[in-house]
């Protein structure tokens, strides 16, 4: 009897911790402690005060001048050496290798990061190795190097700036919005959502890679299903666990909870779980091999018992469509 009771208690505790159980309550109502740790683009953890004062002057500057965002173009003609694209400077566009006949992918980093942060070359190389596309790496370091609260508060303005840049790109080259795919990681995931919103949800795809959790649970500016024709989220470090960095709740048309959405194979830290979102995505661009099964409940996600329709996670299908919550399982090592 004691053994049975002990097993029941352990199983109950595991259920509460192992997956996104009752996400509407557990995540959206989760209250982060005032002091947390959050990583920069190189995986170094920093102390964050979620009640730190907002540096409003920086947000005002980014709002007034979208040229604070920088854009760097890579194509198969210049796969490693970027060409700067400048908003309201037609010559920078026309003199570059940008080809309006090709799909355009925009990659956006997170907090305390820049154009050289690891995820950018990894995703860039995966795309150019598999497809003839325009890859634009956005650098929003002017805001991203601020304290976390300021950076988070300024994300909508930076996202609107990206939307305005893409509208300018469309006006100069005629590249259609339905040939654009916006990919963002952590705070960058919410940023690309706001960019898509600025364009009226006309971009083909928005992919949110483990969208940041702190300050975003009930934030109306977070990425949402209306930000593109198809919006996908890849969750790898659910935010209602101790130290969880991702939001861990449904924010898209299709939300993939990889390996349950909290702990990833081979990872012992939250930053490893968090970063695996962009590693998994880059692998799917190359192989399109990670498949999720639709789940009818949080319990199915937790217990790896999802048996609904299947949908490939990630990839570069600009005509992709899916709706619901999916569990996808991976292996420990690349290509997962």
Poorly predicted spans: 1-25
Stated plainly, the CATH topology is called Rossmann fold
Structural class: alpha/beta
What is the averaged pLDDT score? 92
Helix content: 25-40%
Describe what this molecule looks like in 3D.
- The chain is of the alpha/beta class and 336 residues long.
- The protein has one domain (2-328): Rossmann fold (3-Layer(aba) Sandwich), CATH 3.40.50.
- The protein has ten helices and 13 strands.
- It has helices at 2-18, 23-26, 56-64, 90-94, 119-130, 141-144, 148-173, 187-198, 270-287, 298-302; strands at residues 35-39, 45-49, 70-75, 78-85, 104-108, 134-139, 180-185, 205-209, 230-235, 254-258, 291-295, 310-312, 324-328.
- Strands 4-3-6-5-7-8-9-10-13-11-12 form an eleven-stranded mixed beta sheet, with helices on both faces. Strands 1-2 form a two-stranded antiparallel sheet.
- Helix 3 (56-64) packs parallel to helix 7.
Task: Summarize it.
The protein has 336 residues and is α/β, with parallel strands linked by helices. Helices cover 33% and strands 21% of the residues. An eleven-stranded mixed sheet has the order 4-3-6-5-7-8-9-10-13-11-12, with helices on both faces. A two-stranded antiparallel ribbon has the order 1-2.
